[in-house]
Amino acid sequence: MKKIKPFSENIIFYDSEFSSFDSKNGELLSIGMVKMNGEELYLELKSTSEPIDWVKENVIPFLTGKKISPAAALKKIKKFAGSKTPFLLSYIDNYDAVYLKNIMGPGKNNIFHWITIDISSMFFALGLNPEDFGDGDKSGLFKKLGIDWKKYREHHALDDAKLLREFYIKFFNIK
After folding, report:
1. Integer angstrom CA distances of residue 21 from 17, 67, 83, 100
2. Alpha helix locations (H) across the chain?
3. What digits encode the pLDDT tens for the residues 40-67?
4. Domain annotation for the chain: domains and CATH numbers
5. What is the pLDDT of residue 1?
6. Of 11, 43, 66, 89, whose Cβ has the fewest other Cβ atoms within 10 Å?
7. What are 134-162's pLDDT values in tens digits?
8. Nearest to 11 by CA among 175, 169, 154
9. Angle, nearest 10°, between helix axes 70-81 and 93-104?
């Protein structure tokens, strides 16, 4: 089988935690980003929206860092991303990318390439259940790749971004 070579290495692995699945009224609570070289950014944001019960139980107790405004977060994200318009890669980009776009605002404020990439679609295309990535190692793929997914905190934006990066590098055998 021919080795698959990704289109670009200009990628930032991204995950976020947010207050609700209603992206018009919910808010970002935390952001985790990791570059291909391993450089990391983790931010916790001030929020005024009431989180849904699941978020109260599974996310809020682990948000213990200093909270910053969305505007301050945007400045840090711009600096982290740099000027080369990286691709944004997440587990499921439906919410992560929309919530990030909410703080970037309308117009040409997009820091990232307009096409986002998600691991769940890759799983689907490979005949794997996309939910296996975010729900333990049901398919055994992490084990086959030598990934100890248990070392990552579940529903922690930075750990989820780090797991995405480790999976991507091992899956595509990137050195």
Report:
1. 10, 21, 31, 13
2. 53-58, 70-81, 93-104, 119-125, 131-134, 141-145, 157-171
3. 999 999 999 999 999 999 999 999 999 9
4. 11-171 (3.30.420.10)
5. 41
6. 66
7. 666 767 778 888 888 778 888 899 999 99
8. 169
9. 110
pTM: 0.90
Burial degree of 30 (CB within 10 A; 0-12, 13-18, 19+): buried
d(CA 6, CA 54): 35
Kindly give the residue spans of alpha helices, DSSP state H, lying in 43-118.
53-58, 70-81, 93-104
**In which residue are the tokens 């587990």 written?**
91
Q: Could you tell me whether strands 28-35 and 87-90 are parallel, antiparallel, or unpaired per DSSP bridges?
A: unpaired
Q: How many angstroms from the chain centroid is the CA of residue 6?
A: 18
Residue with tokens 């990391």, as numbered in its chain: 40
Residue with tokens 């117009």: 107
